[in-house]
Amino acid sequence: MAVQVTIYLNEADQWHHRPLHVEILNYLRQENVAGATALHAVAGFTGRQRLQTTHLVDAGGKLPVVITFIDADEHVNRVLPKLREMAAHRLIVRENVVIEQGSLD
User: Fold this and answer.
1) What are the distances in angstroms from CA 96 to CA 18, 61, 82, 91?
2) What does the DSSP assignment read for the chain?
3) Domain boundaries, the chain
4) What is the largest CA-CA distance in the chain?
């Protein structure tokens, strides 16, 4: 059993004047998380906001960015407090998953 964490951001979110999604990935790497991915959406919305697409001229940094990572429960418990601080205003989802193939190494 492993834990998958998904963090829903938008591209305008920042942490210490840097893109939040990049800073979260840097933090997860420093903490030796098994792996993480940031996906940049072509369309979507966060927080019940207006739909944003890459076709809107005024999208202006509001397209969704989703970060997902999977690791052991103990490791996730260790990094979550900092992630809650970094993305205090955003949705963070945690769920137990079964690894069907591959490993966390």
Assistant:
1) 31, 32, 20, 17
2) -EEEEEEEEETT-EETTEEHHHHHHHHHHHTT-S-EEEEE-SEE-STT---EETT-TT-TT-SEEEEEEEE-HHHHHHHHHHHHHHTTTSEEEEEEE---SS---
3) 2-97
4) 44
Q: Give residue-wise pLDDT tens across range 41-79.
A: 777 776 676 776 666 545 556 788 999 999 999 999 999
Beta strands 91-97 and 2-10, pairing class? antiparallel
Helix axes 73-86, 20-30, angle to 10 degrees: 150
d(CA 42, CA 70): 24
What top-level class would CATH report for the domain 2-97?
Answer: alpha beta
The tokens of 98 are what? 């079964």
What is this structure's pTM? 0.86
Closest CA to 91 of 5, 23, 17: 5
